[in-house]
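This part of the workshop introduces the protein records we will be handling. The structure tokens are whole numbers drawn from a learned vocabulary of backbone shapes. The record below serves as our worked example for the rest of this section.

===
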Amino acid sequence: MAEEEKSGKKKQVMVAIDDSDCSKHALRWTLSYLKDSLADSEIILFTAQPQLDLSSVYASSYGAAPIELINSMQQNYKNAALNRIDEGTKICAENGVTPKKVMEFGNPKEAICDAVEKLGVDLLIVGSHGKGALERTFLGSVSNYCVNKAKCPVLVVRTKA
């Protein structure tokens, strides 16, 4: 708190969200349980949309997919990420918080860690799907990646088992 007062800069707290219930739970949990602690912080609502894979579209059209189809698919993909941000913004509004909204395209776990560094985030909050060890080994875990790679403290919010 004294450090914040000296610099005059608000602490940056980023909550990473996706389409999962666990990320919405993490956002709600943060806004409920950390409300007093975060009163003088800027909340950043972050989502990362993986790159759209158009290889099957090109393959099925022998490499000559109509540009209208490609543009429509890209717009729908972008709209999905915008809807996710809008849903998170509504959750914040229910708790009297107006977040800064950030959307990136790319591998979510890498995009989250890159954004932490680029935005000067002081605390990253992510939800956990609660995958088992075998699933994490083969599929990876965004929260585990962030805990090990993010350049700030990471709070992982688990849903109740």
Notes: Residues 67-94 form the longest helix (28 residues).
